[in-house]
Amino acid sequence: MLNLTTGATEGIPLDCRKFGNHGFVFTFVPIVYGCIFVMGIVGNSMVVAVIHCYMKLKTVANILVLNLAISDLTFLLTLPLWATFTATGYYWPFGTFLCKASAGLVILNLYTSIFFLTVLSIDRYLAIVHPVQSRRFRSIAYARITCVVVWVFAFVLSMPTALTRDVYLLSGHNKTVCGLLQEKIEKVKKLNDLVLAIKLMKSLLGFLIPFIIIITCYCLIGRALLGAKRIQKSSRSRDDEVLRMLAATVLAFFLCWTPHQVCHFMDLLHQMKPLKQCDILDMVDTAMPFTICIAYFNSCINPIVYGFVGRQFRKNLLRLLRSSPRGATGPHPSISSKMSALSFRASEALSLTAKTNASADVK
């Protein structure tokens, strides 16, 4: 049985021998991390540049998308560290501070990304289904306050993860690793309870509750748009485009995060059980790096889903790449110009539907 040593003074037994230590993980995962790093940095940097140079922070959607891109960029900066950590067989040469900071930034990105996706979903629901009533709540001031609240709340939720990470020396392997904090025997139960609480928050606040909110918002949007089609047939193709984009958003979120959350939930169940089943633990630890890769890939998809699908965004991106002057063509379009136009047409159709129903009631 392997021993984990803190400062080469205290031996801490590990429960199982294998703990997901497979050679192909050390080759495959760093390559994927490298690809995600390059794609994510390029994509999110373009989103930030296009919004800053051409679109400005004049709409709620622009502010939220900019914060989402900044969140992804902050996380992506830690990927070279994790790629090196995995490529060297889980050897951490970067010290205690970067161990804690990198682990905290990963969880910070998890929460900020999902929270901003949730806020964007709520914003789209209000803009399309309740365009008039929600106008005063969808102001620039409210959007900025919401972003501050999201960052602060996500930071608070990520702090326990940072505080429960430290650097240790594997005595049998002469290898420094970045892992969970190890305490003396009398403090082990408190630490285990804290880790369990962190994992529960990650499952509930980091996935399940936001996902339910997102699904609910898009179902209500879809129902409203489908109802509006009966009155305004000419907007059918454009409404279908919105529905496809919303479906792609939900599908991307679901596909990227569900494998990791399932794996994470199995690890959570394993921790709650008094008996240690090493085969299950080894299976979870082996699958975890691959599910993390899929989850991290969401940082590359976000610019595509929320930016590159817009025709105006692509125009502005080409202007940026060609280094054309900022004032060369007309006013600055919003990153959500296509969605706003559809929101207006949908709201008109919904209003017309309501008037038609009212007329029918009078008759």
UniProtKB/TrEMBL annotation:
<keyword id="KW-0807">Transducer</keyword>
<keyword id="KW-1015">Disulfide bond</keyword>
<dbReference type="GO" id="GO:0019229">
    <property type="term" value="P:regulation of vasoconstriction"/>
</dbReference>
<keyword id="KW-0675">Receptor</keyword>
<dbReference type="InterPro" id="IPR000190">
    <property type="entry name" value="ATII_AT1_rcpt"/>
</dbReference>
<feature type="domain" description="G-protein coupled receptors family 1 profile">
    <location>
        <begin position="43"/>
        <end position="306"/>
    </location>
</feature>
<feature type="transmembrane region" description="Helical">
    <location>
        <begin position="242"/>
        <end position="260"/>
    </location>
</feature>
<dbReference type="InterPro" id="IPR000276">
    <property type="entry name" value="GPCR_Rhodpsn"/>
</dbReference>
<feature type="transmembrane region" description="Helical">
    <location>
        <begin position="63"/>
        <end position="85"/>
    </location>
</feature>
<dbReference type="GO" id="GO:0019722">
    <property type="term" value="P:calcium-mediated signaling"/>
</dbReference>
<dbReference type="GO" id="GO:0006955">
    <property type="term" value="P:immune response"/>
</dbReference>
<dbReference type="InterPro" id="IPR050119">
    <property type="entry name" value="CCR1-9-like"/>
</dbReference>
<dbReference type="GO" id="GO:0019957">
    <property type="term" value="F:C-C chemokine binding"/>
</dbReference>
<feature type="transmembrane region" description="Helical">
    <location>
        <begin position="200"/>
        <end position="221"/>
    </location>
</feature>
<comment type="similarity">
    <text>Belongs to the G-protein coupled receptor 1 family.</text>
</comment>
<keyword id="KW-0812">Transmembrane</keyword>
<dbReference type="GO" id="GO:0016493">
    <property type="term" value="F:C-C chemokine receptor activity"/>
</dbReference>
<comment type="function">
    <text>Receptor for angiotensin II, a vasoconstricting peptide, which acts as a key regulator of blood pressure and sodium retention by the kidney. The activated receptor in turn couples to G-alpha proteins G(q) and thus activates phospholipase C and increases the cytosolic Ca(2+) concentrations, which in turn triggers cellular responses such as stimulation of protein kinase C.</text>
</comment>
<dbReference type="GO" id="GO:0004945">
    <property type="term" value="F:angiotensin type II receptor activity"/>
</dbReference>
<comment type="function">
    <text>Receptor for angiotensin II, a vasoconstricting peptide, which acts as a key regulator of blood pressure and sodium retention by the kidney. The activated receptor in turn couples to G-alpha proteins G(q) (GNAQ, GNA11, GNA14 or GNA15) and thus activates phospholipase C and increases the cytosolic Ca(2+) concentrations, which in turn triggers cellular responses such as stimulation of protein kinase C.</text>
</comment>
<keyword id="KW-0297">G-protein coupled receptor</keyword>
<feature type="transmembrane region" description="Helical">
    <location>
        <begin position="287"/>
        <end position="309"/>
    </location>
</feature>
<feature type="transmembrane region" description="Helical">
    <location>
        <begin position="91"/>
        <end position="120"/>
    </location>
</feature>
<dbReference type="InterPro" id="IPR017452">
    <property type="entry name" value="GPCR_Rhodpsn_7TM"/>
</dbReference>
<protein>
    <recommendedName>
        <fullName>Type-1 angiotensin II receptor</fullName>
    </recommendedName>
</protein>
<dbReference type="InterPro" id="IPR000248">
    <property type="entry name" value="ATII_rcpt"/>
</dbReference>
<keyword id="KW-1003">Cell membrane</keyword>
<dbReference type="GO" id="GO:0007204">
    <property type="term" value="P:positive regulation of cytosolic calcium ion concentration"/>
</dbReference>
<keyword id="KW-1133">Transmembrane helix</keyword>
<keyword id="KW-0472">Membrane</keyword>
<dbReference type="Pfam" id="PF00001">
    <property type="entry name" value="7tm_1"/>
</dbReference>
<feature type="transmembrane region" description="Helical">
    <location>
        <begin position="141"/>
        <end position="163"/>
    </location>
</feature>
<dbReference type="GO" id="GO:0030593">
    <property type="term" value="P:neutrophil chemotaxis"/>
</dbReference>
<dbReference type="GO" id="GO:0009897">
    <property type="term" value="C:external side of plasma membrane"/>
</dbReference>
<feature type="transmembrane region" description="Helical">
    <location>
        <begin position="31"/>
        <end position="51"/>
    </location>
</feature>
<keyword id="KW-0325">Glycoprotein</keyword>
<dbReference type="GO" id="GO:0001596">
    <property type="term" value="F:angiotensin type I receptor activity"/>
</dbReference>
